[in-house]
Design goal:
Layout (H helix, E strand, L loop, with lengths): L6 E6 L2 H10 L4 E2 L19 E4 L4 E6 L4 H5 L10 E5 L3 H11 L4 E4 L6 E7 L5 E7 L4
Parallel strand pairs: 1-4, 5-8
Antiparallel strand pairs: 2-3, 3-4, 6-7, 7-8
Length: 138
C-alpha cells in the first residue's frame, strides 16, 4: 500500500485571514472545482471552507468548531500543533518574499537537518510553517 499526502486541514477562527495569508505569502492558488470534496452540511464539516493548493497538495481552511464532533458522532483527538513543510528551489528568494510581506521568521540554516536550509514562521493562527531547500553539505 502506497500513501501520498493529499491535503492538510487547518482550523481557524478567521478563515478569510488565513485564506489571504496562504494565497499572498505562500502564493497558493485555487483548486480545480472538480477536485474539491463534497461537504455534508447536515452532519460533519460545516461552515465556509477555503480550499487552496500548490498544484499537488490541497489545504482545507475550516472554521474552528470544537462542538462539531458531537454533531457528527465522531470523536477525534488531534494534536494541538505541528507544522506544515514546503520545499523550495530558492530559499533566498523565499526569505526576500517573507521580508517583503513583513512576515518574521527564524532562519535555522542547516542546524536542524543537515542538507536542508530551513526557515520557520507562523501563520495568523500560530500554526508553524517550515520552508526548506536542499543544499550541499561540506
Amino acid at each position: 500500500m502506497k500513501l501520498k499526502l493529499h491535503h492538510i486541514n487547518l482550523c481557524s477562527t478567521n478563515v478569510p485571514e488565513m485564506d489571504r495569508f496562504y494565497r499572498d505569502v505562500l502564493t497558493l492558488g485555487d483548486e480545480d472545482p472538480s477536485a474539491l470534496p463534497p461537504l455534508n452540511q447536515e452532519k460533519g464539516l460545516v461552515g465556509d471552507v477555503s480550499f487552496v493548493t500548490d498544484g499537488d497538495i490541497q489545504m482545507h481552511l475550516t472554521p474552528r468548531d470544537v462542538l462539531n464532533s458531537f454533531r457528527s458522532g465522531q470523536v477525534v483527538n488531534p494534536l494541538d500543533r505541528g507544522h506544515i513543510a514546503y520545499r523550495t528551489d530558492d530559499i533566498e528568494a523565499f526569505m526576500a518574499h517573507l521580508d517583503a510581506q513583513g512576515v518574521p521568521y527564524s532562519d535555522w540554516g542547516s542546524n536542524a537537518v543537515k542538507g536542508w536550509h530551513q526557515v520557520f514562521f507562523y501563520d495568523p493562527d500560530g500554526n508553524v510553517i517550515e520552508v526548506h531547500q536542499i543544499v550541499d553539505v561540506d
